[in-house]
Structure formats: C-alpha cells, structure tokens
Amino acid sequence: MVSFTALALTLAAAISAFALPTDATEDTTHVHDRRGTPNGEGTSNGYYYSWWSDGADQSATYTNGGGGNYALSWSGNNGNLVGGKGWNPGSTSRTISYSGTYQPNGNSYLSVYGWTRNALIEYYVVESYGSYNPSSAASKKGTVTCDGASYDVLSTWRYNAPSIDGTQTFQQFWSVRNPKKNPGGSISGSVTVSCHFNAWRNFGMTLGSNHYYQIVATEGYFSNGRSNITVS
C-alpha cells in the first residue's frame, strides 16, 4: 500500500460489528470483514499506520501528521472505524508513549492495539474509553499493575469472525485500565507492553510468535468524536 499524508473518507456501506469482547454465545455471522481488507495501511514519516472505516452513513477523516502523529474525527453516530500509528512488526519489549487529545462522545476506545500470528491473537491494552467498558463482556482472569496503574486482564473467543487473515476463530486478549484515563480532553501516558504480555502469559494467555502491527489506535462505534495523538 502506498503511504499517504491525509485520507478523508465519506463512505456508505454495510454496518460491521465493533471489536467488543464477546463470549462463545454471541452471533457474529453479520460481521463485515473489516481488518482483513483495511482502507489503508503503510508507512508515514517513519511510523506504520492502519486506517479503516465501514463508512456506514458516517463522515470520518483520518490524517497522518509528522512523525508519530495522527488525527481522527468522526460523526454520524453510525458505523465502525479504527485508525492509528505505531510499528510493524510489533515488539514484546517496547515502551510506547502517547500524548494528545481524545474526545469521544459514545462508544470508543483509545488503546495499544495489535495482532499476532502463530497463534492468531487480537489484543488490546485499553487506556481510555467512552460510554462502554470493554471489560464488561469478557472473562476476567485477574489484575496486573503496569506503569503505576491497575488493569483488569480478560480474554474471550471470536468465532468465525473477521481477522487479519480473513474469517477465523481466534482469541482476544485484553488489559483494561481501571480506572480508565479520563476522556474528553488532554491525555498522555506510557505502556510497557512486556508487563502486559508477561501477565497474560502468567494467566495462560500466550501470544503468537509472529507479531503483526502494534499501534496506538482510536476506535469508534456508533458514536462521534475526535482524537489527535502522537506516538513515540
């Protein structure tokens, strides 16, 4: 994919499902394949970016800034989107710093987000969120303290769901900051990924050996909002 400086999309397509933690009973047959065919991904100013929107009656604008900066705004209270900047491949030892503004109105996450292969795992370290707490719909394994904050550790399965390798069955691993960083304005912090990965392994949650991208992502679902985040 050719890298770009700015991407502005106003799309109309079928609604997909937000990447909520789900249990084995959830019906996922209606989920549109969102991560296997993203709208755009590549490199920008030395960082990797990934951007996707289902465009379901919604206006969304994603812009790659200088260095590790990106800006995202969305409106329409409809559809699903996710975008951010980071690295590819991901790392098991990186300390990720982020700063900027995060202003969701409704259902949204700000998280370190990534995938592994062998085994196929989707993972989140959620720093802040809007109206929906993602830990409410997954199986809690315990807690961990990382970078001076407490996180709930959770896992769940996704069955016949979209992934970076098409429709697959795979696990999601979650660390959800508790309490969350307050959304609605300035936000900053750091995430030592090894702290979370080691805790997950101690709870029997082992990531795959092949890391795909690892980004600080803003995700929204049937909501409005904006973020302007710089990653380093």
Molecular structure report:
By secondary structure, this protein is mainly beta. It is built from one helix and 13 strands. The protein has one helix spanning 193-202; strands at 6-11, 40-44, 47-53, 58-64, 69-75, 80-87, 95-117, 121-129, 139-146, 149-163, 166-177, 185-192, 210-231. Strands 1, 2, 3, 4, 5, 6, 7, 8, 9, 10, 11, 12 and 13 form a 13-stranded mixed sheet that branches.
* Number of helical stretches of at least 4 residues: 1
The class by helix and strand makeup works out as mainly beta
Tally of strands: 13
Uncertain stretches: 1-18, 22-38
What oligomeric state do the depicted chains represent?
Answer: single chain
Order of helices and strands: EEEEEEEEEEEEHE
Radius of gyration: 16 Å
- Characterize the main sheet: 13 strands, mixed
Q: Tell me, what's the shape?
A: globular
Helix content: under 10%
Report the mean per-residue pLDDT as an integer: 84
> Beta-sheet strand percentage?
over 45%
Q: Gap between N and C termini, in Å? A: 23 Å
